[in-house]
Write a structure and sequence with these properties.
The chain has eight helices and no strands. The protein is an all-alpha fold.
Length: 184
């Protein structure tokens, strides 16, 4: 990585802000990509940190308006490939062709995930405000069902039933949206 540090160009304040915004927006996607290749959280954390460093130092080469996530995943792939080359002696072998196949599958799955996320966002707009609040408390705020129960002043059992109904409604809606949007 010393080559990266030697070729470093200073970023303007605007470029620094753009980098931070783009990295924060796509960090989870890049991390998920790394975890597919290295299913060990500690090692994946190290790879993500190295990826972030490389992205930062090469950000002046990034063309704003292009796909930052794809760029970040490509850099992460190269770092993982180098990591495995170093690990061969430790018997952690992964054929580069196999790794490429896994990454291609991941890319395909992430593309489908994007479709599903768009469909889910559309469906979330169609449910009642009360139901949307329950889903947001559970999945965006990370509250447990008993905590949500206290927050919305509803019995726990009734809340479990409501959540099952909301989940089913969203699932049906997402499936319909994907089928009609992508002619599946």
């Amino acid at each position: 990585m010393s080559n990266i540090f030697n070729n470093r160009t200073s970023l303007t304040n605007e470029q620094s802000e753009q980098f931070i915004q783009l990295f924060m927006k796509h960090q989870r996607e890049i991390y998920a990509h790394i975890l597919i290749m290295i299913p060990n959280y500690s090692q994946a954390d190290d790879i993500l940190q190295e990826t972030a460093t490389v992205l930062w130092y090469k950000f002046a080469d990034f063309e704003i308006g292009t796909n930052f996530a794809a760029w970040g995943k490509r850099i992460a792939f190269n770092i993982v490939r180098d990591y495995f080359k170093k690990q061969r002696s430790a018997r952690q072998l992964l054929n580069e062709d196999h790794l490429k196949e896994v990454i291609d599958r991941l890319a395909n799955n992430l593309e489908h995930l994007d479709y599903r996320m768009e469909a889910l966002q559309s469906c979330m707009k169609k449910i009642s405000e009360k139901d949307r609040k329950i889903i947001q408390l559970r999945y965006e705020n990370g509250l447990s069902v008993p905590q949500i129960s206290k927050h919305v002043k509803r019995p726990i059992q009734g809340l479990y039933k409501a959540m099952a109904r909301i989940h089913e409604s969203l699932l049906v809606c997402v499936k319909k949206n994907i089928a009609s949007e992508y002619h599946l």
